[in-house]
Amino acid sequence: MNSALFSPLPPVENKRPQAEVYGFVLWIATFFILSGYLLFSWLPPESLYSYGITYHPDRYWALSIPAYIPFSYGLIGITMNFLWIYHRAQPLDDFGILEDEYTNYAVRRYGVEVEHVTKPVIPPVKDIPITKINQVLYHKH
pLDDT tens per residue, the chain (141 residues)? Predict the structure, then answer.
């Protein structure tokens, strides 16, 4: 075999900072933000005043923001689920709602379903034709 075909590629020079540096900086920033949040939520206001921090939000936000975040994720998930179902549903005037390729009508002979006679199990779900429904509902005696 020709060794020139399988020679290693030359190293690529990367002129921008590496992803590891960004990850480390974000990790440190997350640590400081979490530490500041915990100090703000647990220390009494007199301690914050002694450190020179005189302007800070109400303590209500220390509990409400962490509680609102999971609630908003759940609300967004439920909303997106309803929108997806609405997007995928067929219109109400479409005849595909009444009968499609998955329709499974019960086979009846002499007024008895054939499958129930041969198999003594729980009967499978069957569809009723719309003509039979209209006959039963709107038949005049």
Answer: 566 667 777 777 766 667 788 889 999 999 999 998 898 888 888 988 998 888 888 888 888 988 999 999 999 999 999 999 999 888 878 776 777 777 777 666 555 455 545 555 666 677 788 888 888 888 765
Q: Does residue 107 fall inside a structural domain?
A: yes
**Host domain of residue 130:** 95-138
Q: 52 and 36: one domain?
A: yes
Rounded to whole angstroms, the Cα distance separating 141 from 138 reads 9
Six-digit token string for 18: 């590496």
| One domain, residues 24 and 46 | yes
Query: Is the entire prediction scored with pTM above 0.85?
Result: no
